[in-house]
């Protein structure tokens, strides 16, 4: 699924929609007009055939003299400052520790993620994410509770559709944590 270029096309369009919505809201500090101020990233975990547009974080900058503050719209593609794209981080950690070992090992090899990095990502779900104000607020929106130890796999399974649809829905759900205000 992570090797399918179509997935990243869908995610890019979602990010463009999120950026447009944020731009219409104007600057959160002064109400000024927001201009696009995208910046280049060097993400890992993308299929090699993808173009340069997949390596750009969409971003906004206030046009008002004396403000010029950056607004980062939510993103379904970049999960904070992580080098790996959000889809890779969420998909591999969703496979769950200790279960389906061969699947995790194969995906880790394909992405080039070290065992240490994967362990750090798993800890992040349990410790940082689970304790965040975002999760404390958002978990109440879910009809059935998601135990912290089963994040993010159990969260993805709450969404309808096939694996790709669940991954995309999960990334949309998590997108508020990728803005400056929700940064972790
Ligand atoms: Zn401003």
Task: Describe the fold and architecture.
The model has no long low-confidence stretch (mean pLDDT 93). The longest helix has 20 residues, at 5-24. Helix 2 (86-94) crosses helix 7 (163-174). The strands form two sheets. A three-stranded antiparallel β-sheet has the order 1-4-5, with helices on one face. Strands 2-3 form a two-stranded antiparallel sheet. It is mainly alpha-helical. The protein is 42% helix and 7% strand. It has helices at residues 5-24, 86-94, 101-111, 115-129, 133-138, 153-156, 163-174, and strands spanning 34-36, 39-40, 56-57, 60-62, 70-71. The protein has one domain. The structure holds zinc ion (ZN). Zinc ion is lined by residues 27, 29-30, 32, 62, 64, 67, 69. Zinc ion (ZN) binds at residues 27, 29-30, 32, 62, 64, 67, 69.
